[in-house]
Amino acid sequence: MLVVVLVSVAAGPDAFETVRNVASGTLGQLFLVMWTAALFLHSFNGLRHLVFDAGYGFGLEANRYSGIMILLATLFFTVAVWIVAWFIS
Predict the structure, then answer these.
(1) What is d(CA 77, CA 44) in angstroms, rounded to the nearest whole number?
(2) Which residues are CB-neighbours of 54 under 8 A, at least 6 positions away?
(3) 49 in Cβ contact with 83 (< 8 Å)
(4) CATH number of the CATH domain containing 49
(5) How much of the chain exceeds pLDDT 90, in percent?
(6) Domain of residue 83, residue span
(7) pLDDT (tens digit, 9 = 90+) per residue, 44-62?
(8) Which among 21, 34, 55, 77 is least buried, having the fewest CB atoms inside 10 angstroms?
(9) Could you tell me which of 13, 69, 22 has the C-alpha nearest to residue 44?
(10) Is the Cβ–Cβ distance between 16 and 9 less than 8 Å?
């Protein structure tokens, strides 16, 4: 998505306006929300694996708990980012 935006900026105002219209549509917004969720999920899972690399969290209970916390944190931060984005715009 970043490359598409940068290429459209380099191509001129008409190309950028087209990308902007697509991104501001329903399908574009859904894509951006899912992209935000994927970013948070990947980041939090990376932190979880750093904890695993330190030798902690291998028990079944701890593993299940950390997985649930990753999903809840992803949901919370995704919603928080989009609420802030909605109020700013």
Answers:
(1) 11
(2) none
(3) no
(4) 1.20.1300
(5) 97
(6) 2-88
(7) 999 999 999 999 999 999 9
(8) 55
(9) 69
(10) yes
